[in-house]
Request: fold
Amino acid sequence: MRLELKLNGTTLQLAQVAPNWCILMDAIDHPPCEAELVMYIDDHRETWQVKLPAGISKNSKRVNFVDS
Reply:
């Protein structure tokens, strides 16, 4: 299984996803935006459109999101 967060042309690898937050492998700074969560399991790809109301801080790997 592979988890990704795609935003503004950048793909970030995820360590964990929960119903309203995720954990990044490597944190960056990014302002609030819309993004896409992507989960790959074998040959299956599932996506969810989300909003990051607080953006991302390089000081925390946890990112909160809401459904878009």
